[in-house]
Amino acid sequence: MTDIEITLLKQLETITQERDLLLKRCHQSEQAYTLLLDQLKQMLRHRFGQKSERYIDPNNPQLSLIEGIIEPPLAEEPLSDVDIPEQDEPELPDGSVANRRNSSTHDIIAPI
């Protein structure tokens, strides 16, 4: 065998090993891609899928019982237009008047 043939055989052997290595890496990459794609699909189903808590069964008789009780809120009048009557200070059994905080206005908590 000549030097050229020996060199060509070594190159062929090296290229064959590289090809086998690249095929193995390609197969591993395909498996990793498939695994990641399955995990992504599972996470998307978990994040955006239907949830059992949101399902309302139309045949469930319990839901119709609540609908008749709950009424929509009425329009509220602004508190500044409502007159609040002054109340007398309560008397204690000994005839004295109970201490009350002196303020010119009543503390009113407005609904949000």
Task: Describe the model.
The protein is mainly α and 112 residues long. The chain is built from 2 helices and no strands. Helix content is 47%, strand content 0%. The protein is rod-shaped.
Quick overview:
With 112 residues, the protein is an all-alpha fold. The chain has helices spanning 3-48, 61-67.
Mean pLDDT: 75
Q: Which outline best applies?
A: rod-shaped
Distance between the first and last residues' Cα:
97 Å
Parts with pLDDT < 50 across at least 5 consecutive residues: none
- In angstroms, what is the radius of gyration? 41 Å
Number of helices: 2
Structural class: mainly alpha
Biggest pleated-sheet summary: none
Succession of helices and strands = HH
Provide the fold topology:
Elements: H1 3-48, H2 61-67
Question: Keywords for this structure?
Answer:
0% strand, 112 residues, mainly alpha, single chain
